[in-house]
Specification:
The structure holds 2 protein chains of 2 kinds. Chain A is an alpha/beta fold. Helix content of chain A is about 40%, strand content about 15%. Chain A has helices at about 20-25, 50-55, 80-95, 115-130; strands at about 10-15, 35-40, 60-65, 105. Chain A has a 4-stranded parallel β-sheet, with helices on both faces. The longest helix of chain A is centred in the middle third of the chain and has 19 residues, at about 80-95. Chain A is globular. The termini of chain A are far apart. Chain B is of the alpha/beta class. In chain B, about 30% of the residues lie in helices and about 15% in strands. Chain B is built from 12 helices and 8 strands. In chain B, α8 packs across α10. The longest helix of chain B is centred in the last third of the chain and has 15 residues, at about 285-300. Chain B is globular. The termini of chain B are far apart. Classes of the chains: A alpha/beta, B alpha/beta. At the A-B interface, α2, α3, β4 and α4 of A face α8, α10 and α12 of B.
Chain lengths: ~140, ~325
């Protein structure tokens, strides 16, 4: 039995823009890929890069962090800090040998339902290309 | 140049001051090619102080590690200063700790020791074998004169000196109250060629390399304990609620430990190379840290441990930061 690989994506969406954008995509009845598991956070600046590493460890094949456009942050500057952090974390994971396509970041505002769909499609495509995350996934789950 | 009498005189002068509680420096080790750190509390102990190419340790690690026990009622806390001897690379740790406000500048007395390179224990052991007696090393021009078990041996400096000294950009302390002797001339520059070389590998090759290295790790946390920048009271890897990494030593947890350590040191690592020196299983940890240092310099034009007035890298932002990967 051969099945096509379907990646698991964990998405950290900011409460004020991207989560509302995802909501808009849903209420506008757009179809986006179902590989995504959404975690709502108050701001993209809330996401510790360790969340992402932990997600990859526990079975995610890709991670998406999405926040407000620069300058639109509800907390004024949270997404600027997040941008710096994830830039560095992405470089680090790349150096260790993890495909950089597994770490994605996007700016989606509350009115960009269509953009949200595109972002999801692209994220899933990249994770599909990278294949199953096998490098440091936990082998022994119930230790 | 290196004159231990000058060092001891200066140390005596400083430790005798009323506002100095203790002095951290180096003394002769008990065996092998490395000296040991020493904490002096009294002027009578200064004869133990040394400085020679065996003084690899970074005394800046000890400044922020002191346990702050609660003071009994009726007693005043000891607010006297701590004096510390620093080489060029060690002084960057002091600068970075000051940037992060680990302590106030007026709580420490920094005695700068311009340095012309220290010996790498691994290289020396390869050349002369393991010795049970402490080795004395003197620098004479471009060679080292070693006294091993009473015998005098010579070796070219280039072959024994630590890797971090071969690319040392800061031989003179960047922050100090007093210099013990005259400044030395800078002899090397750093072009991060080793990082570029590593970057050329494919992702599979990179992971193969790190898989092998991380699998060796026994999670003794020596690298964290010795690091001058790892001074958190509670470290994230030992936190149980929430538990970020489990304590088992399998490849998954080991990778996450090393990734999170490199991540916590990005924009903070001052490249003293202590983590790699103390690693009992020879994991090339600085390979990760140097990659982050280079990228931080390239992307944010920021170098840790150079400017006392700087803001910590991840506690500030620039609206023009690169964002080419963001969708």
């Amino acid at each position: 039995m051969s099945e096509e690989f379907e990646p698991n994506i964990v998405a950290f969406l900011c409460n004020w823009c991207s989560y509302a954008g995802a909501d808009l995509a849903g209420t506008s009845r757009m179809r986006y890929l179902p590989n995504i598991k959404i975690i709502r956070v108050m701001c993209s600046g809330r996401v510790n890069p360790l969340f992402m590493v932990n997600a990859l460890q526990q079975g995610a094949d890709g991670v998406l962090i999405s926040g407000c456009h620069p300058g639109d942050c509800h907390y004024l500057e949270g997404n600027f800090y997040a941008r710096r952090r994830f830039m560095l974390m992405r470089k680090l994971l790349e150096h260790v040998g993890v495909d950089p396509g597994r770490v994605n970041m996007s700016w989606v505002s509350a009115s960009e339902g269509a953009k949200f769909k595109e972002v999801i499609d692209e994220t899933v495509a990249k994770a599909k290309e990278a294949g199953p995350m096998e490098q440091f996934r936990r082998r022994q789950i119930n230790w | 140049m290196v004159d231990e009498n000058k060092l001891r005189e200066k140390a005596k002068e400083v430790i005798a001051r009323d506002d100095v509680r203790r002095l951290i420096g180096w003394k002769r080790g008990t065996y092998g090619f490395e000296s040991a750190p020493i904490v002096l509390t009294d002027a009578s102990e200064v004869d133990q102080l040394i400085f020679d190419p065996t003084c690899v340790q970074n005394p800046a690690s000890f400044v922020s590690l002191e346990e702050k026990l609660p003071v009994p009622r009726g007693q005043e806390p000891d607010t006297r200063k701590v004096a510390v001897l620093v080489k060029g690379c060690d002084s960057r740790a002091i600068v970075q700790q000051l940037v992060e406000k680990a302590y106030d500048r007026d709580k420490i007395v920094v005695l700068g020791v311009p340095c012309t390179g220290v010996v790498d224990r691994r290289k020396a052991q390869k050349m002369f074998g393991v010795t049970s007696a402490p080795v004395e090393i003197k620098e004479e021009g471009d060679k080292y004169v070693l006294t091993i078990d009473g015998e005098t041996k010579e070796a070219p400096k280039k072959e024994l000196v630590a890797d971090k000294c071969l690319r040392c950009r800061f031989p003179n302390p960047l922050v100090y109250d007093e210099l013990v002797w005259d400044e030395v001339a800078k002899w090397a520059d750093d072009d991060f060629a080793d990082v570029d070389e590593f970057e050329k590998m494919s992702p599979e090759e990179k992971w193969k390399f790190w898989d092998e290295q991380f699998s060796k790790c026994i999670r003794c946390y020596s690298c964290r304990n010795v690091c001058p920048m790892c001074y958190c009271v509670e470290c994230v890897v030992q936190k149980l609620k929430p538990q970020w990494t489990r304590r088992s030593t399998d490849i998954s947890e080991n990778s996450v430990y090393h990734i999170q350590r490199a991540w916590h040191l990005s924009g903070r690592c001052i490249e003293c190379g202590e983590c790699e020196r103390v690693c009992p299983v020879d994991i090339p940890i600085t390979k990760l840290n140097r990659k982050m240092t280079r990228d931080v310099m390239a992307m944010f034009e920021y170098e840790p441990g150079v400017d006392v007035e700087a803001e910590p890298l991840l506690a500030c932002y620039n609206p023009q930061d690169p964002e080419e990967y963001i969708m």
